[in-house]
DNA sequence: TGAAATGTTGGGGCG
DNA sequence: ACGCCCCAACATTTC
């Protein structure tokens, strides 16, 4: 029955290697590969601006490896599937499951509808190492703390499945003449701020594989301590590839497993565990992106200072370490993990701005914006998540800079205004003697901002606000 | 996957 | 030789 016509619906699995749904499709017949951009305004299906740029390039790259046969559409999936099924006499539809709550809801509807039309459906988990509902405590409830989740839950569970081979589709592709083309998705912004950003990246499955192998060969050996140094390249920077599925999480897991097991490898693997944990949290708490997991934070007296929010977003807070992180985000669509914690702590604690405003900004600016990771990360840093950093764990961006950017390379790269200032004052230029600043032509408040808040004062105010919260609840 | 305040200890300078 | 002070270095507690 090689003449059957099968749809593979690409979602966040933009790859040909280890793609279970696509693999299944090729075993069933000829394959019509499609992608649907659903821009309708329900919950959170509208992806952020930076991610849209990435998606554009990723789809192009996928289309190239599909011999220009990727059929691309915009609109309601049911309408689109419906007309494709009729036009091409489709018998089966395959896709890999996404675990975002709005996707799950959407899929239920689509599955019901396909079943009614007598279309066979083939669904696979390929975005998580473990089936998310399989990791439970002994009493059957989901884990709320990372360490036992990972150590007991994941590590005692079955070994993640081995990656599947790359599919060979060249002779089995169905060309669809009616699709709209990638350009029609309008993923590229005007004006073209995306070009600068994308200079930092090379998108696509082939390049992703190369990056993975370089990372495993050269950088993972210093991962455990190196990953905290934002000036160095010891992190994998694979997050956007993972998000869009240009690499499968199993490929990464098994490739890393093949290395000699040591504390660096273990530390890297446990980061993949954090991702699993975030998805589990999201699955069991569909409100994770918008609701405090600890509800006593619902009464927290957040600040509405728009000037502060704007200064944070633009990297103009006058705190060099914070500004460096925010500018890295703005310029590259990415931020080193250490900085995500530092700027998050600063927004939520020193500025006392609602973590959801930070989450929104990251969502728009990150090329790796991922609903589960982003929401879980913000709840963690804000202290309102289940397994959260306590609210009183307030990062001091000066101390953090001295510790993790000891030579100042990272701050100097993104805050060139302070390029020449001695290391001693790089992280706190307001403490520099006037003579030094004068000599270097640095005029605080003119060509680099004065700090928008006093670190010590705002820290105390944050602690104060937090303790008032405790009293309110009791 | 903090930081600051507070407590403790031990060595050296010095009367 | 001794007690005293100072303070760095480290440990513990608190937010």
Uncertain residue segments: none
Distance between termini? 68 Å
Rg from alpha-carbon coordinates: 24 Å
**Broad structural category:** alpha/beta
- CATH fold-level name of the largest domain: DNA Cyclobutane Dipyrimidine Photolyase, subunit A, domain 3
Q: Strand content of the residues, in percent?
A: 5-15%
- Compute the average pLDDT: 94
Shape: globular
Helix content: 40-55%
CATH architectural grouping of the largest domain: Orthogonal Bundle
Instruction: Write down how many β-strands occur, each being a DSSP E stretch of 2 or more residues.
Output: 5
CATH superfamily of the largest domain: DNA Cyclobutane Dipyrimidine Photolyase, subunit A, domain 3
Order of helices and strands: EHEHEHEHEHHHHHHHHHHHHHHHHH
| Top-tier CATH class of the largest domain | Mainly Alpha
> Looking across the biggest beta sheet, what order are the strands in?
3-2-1-4-5
SSE topology:
Elements: E1 5-10, H1 20-28, E2 30-37, H2 49-65, E3 71-74, H3 77-88, E4 90-96, H4 101-116, E5 120-124, H5 146-154, H6 194-198, H7 205-219, H8 223-226, H9 239-244, H10 249-257, H11 263-284, H12 306-314, H13 320-332, H14 337-350, H15 355-365, H16 371-382, H17 397-404, H18 409-414, H19 423-426, H20 434-440, H21 455-473
Parallel strand pairs: 1-2, 1-4, 2-3, 4-5
The protein binds a DNA duplex (15 and 15 nucleotides) through residues 228, 337-338, 341, 345, 380, 389-396, 399-400, 456, 459, 463, 466-467.
